[in-house]
Amino acid sequence: MKICCIGSGYVGLVAGTCLADMGNDVICVDSNKGKIDNLKKGIIPIYEPGLKDMLERNARVRRITFTTNIKDGIQKSDVIFIGVGTPSDLNNCADISAIISVAESIGKYMNGYKVIVNKSTAPVGTLEKIGKVVKSFQKKAIRFDLASNPEFMREGEAIKDFTNPDRIVIGVQGEKAKKIMESIYNGISRTDKPIMFTDIRSAELIKYASNAMLATRISFMNELAQLCEKVGGDIKEIAKGTGLDSRIGPRFLQAGIGYGGSCFPKDVNALIQIMNENGIDAKILTAVNEVNEQQKRSLFEKIQILVPKMKNKKIAIWGLAFKPKTDDMRDAPSITLIKQLQEAGAQINAFDPEAMDNAKTIFRGIKYYDDPYSAVKNCDALVIVTEWNEFRDLDLKKVKRLLKCPNIVDGRNIYEPKDMKELGFHYLCVGR
Ligand code: UDX
């Protein structure tokens, strides 16, 4: 199948690369010339394990190519995937102007039947808008079909999630488009992974519903963690004990510093807006959001218990990215925390294995270190913000020797309170 992926950001690039790897011919389009020039040289704009190798492998045999020429991309393809950004606008709604502008180009340049697939997260009804715009920009009537194919990839696990998904959701009208979509995902659907065909509006809502449900689980556990801190009980045991119920399942029950990233905060807010616009209060999701904001601020209060006077104190931060295995700083809880610490007059020493370059564009007045040990030297406290695996297995005796005061606030519960006490740390974590 000849496929064009418009938008070579996170979704477009990973989807394009995986689709090429599954044997399709893929043209990736982006309006950013610098990005395309880099991609042609094999330089990828994001950190995603496995992506570079897969991209190089497919670029070598020209199964994936890169261009800024959207007309060329559209005309040479049977199927067009739209994977452009839908950032929050001032009202917390998803801004779909980039999608609409792509739809205009598709209408203008299409030269034969196409299936137009939206992969960007966008409010219910967007695909129908895309259809109207495409039609209105056509010089002569050319048939096309529409499909909504939401993406459930997690950053850091994107390749695995794309090639081995729990499900593939496709909202589509018409048998012809359905067959084409089926053939694209042929490799995956031959395994036991179901393709769920549904109507377009349901597909659009499934994406929001999934992210909002996962965010709800996290906020619920974070609120329970606050209760554990008051009445006793261990939130990790509670996650285990509830997760063993097969109706609940074990995943996305980890209490911590609050969810961040490019999807959960944005999608929860957007779904609240969609509900509000339709006269629904969105009581649950409003609370999910509020608990998350509270949770992001809660680590600062814990640090204050160990370091009551923050002015000119040195605080080490391990982990800046919103989660491990990514360099993504979007809506990272570290941003809220570091702002609070700096306002209180603390100096920050930071280390993150991947996100420091991105962090440098956000923070001022932070010192960055090349390894976790040098970041903690002479600090009054160490705060664990992102649960990178490499932090789990460090020499904690050495960390204690390097710290000025043996204070650790663990926002991700990566250590055992009992072990930390034995090692002589003042150790605070979340809900234990
Ligand atoms: C998410 C969805 O999982 C994915 O399906 C969708 O396509 C995009 O949004 P992503 O944002 O990459 O993926 O990360 P994810 O692993 O889902 O984590 C989101 C946030 O929740 C992170 O800040 C993470 O630290 C937090 N989280 C996750 C918890 O606090 N506790 C958990 O148990 C799980």
UniProtKB/TrEMBL annotation:
Sequence positions that bind substrate: 152-155, 207, 252-256, 260, 323
Domain UDP-glucose/GDP-mannose dehydrogenase C-terminal: 316-417
Residues that, per the record, bind NAD(+): 30, 35, 86, 121, 155, 266, 330
Record SUPFAM superfamilies: 6-phosphogluconate dehydrogenase C-terminal domain-like, NAD(P)-binding Rossmann-fold domains, UDP-glucose/GDP-mannose dehydrogenase C-terminal domain
Sample GO molecular function, one term: NAD binding
Residues spanning the signal sequence: none
InterPro entries listed in its UniProt record: 6-PGluconate_DH-like_C_sf (IPR008927), NAD(P)-bd_dom_sf (IPR036291), UDP-Glc/GDP-Man (IPR017476), UDP-Glc/GDP-Man_DH_C (IPR014027), UDP-Glc/GDP-Man_DH_C_sf (IPR036220), UDP-Glc/GDP-Man_DH_dimer (IPR014026), UDP-Glc/GDP-Man_DH_N (IPR001732), UDPglc_DH_bac (IPR028357)
Catalytic activity, as annotated: UDP-alpha-D-glucose + 2 NAD(+) + H2O = UDP-alpha-D-glucuronate + 2 NADH + 3 H(+)
Biological processes annotated in GO: polysaccharide biosynthetic process; UDP-glucuronate biosynthetic process
Pfam entry (one): UDPG_MGDP_dh_N
Keywords: NAD, Oxidoreductase
Active site: 263 (nucleophile)
Annotated pathway: Nucleotide-sugar biosynthesis; UDP-alpha-D-glucuronate biosynthesis; UDP-alpha-D-glucuronate from UDP-alpha-D-glucose: step 1/1
Domain of life assignment: Bacteria
Major enzyme class: oxidoreductase
EC number per UniProt: 1.1.1.22
Family per record: Belongs to the UDP-glucose/GDP-mannose dehydrogenase family.
Name of the protein in question: UDP-glucose 6-dehydrogenase
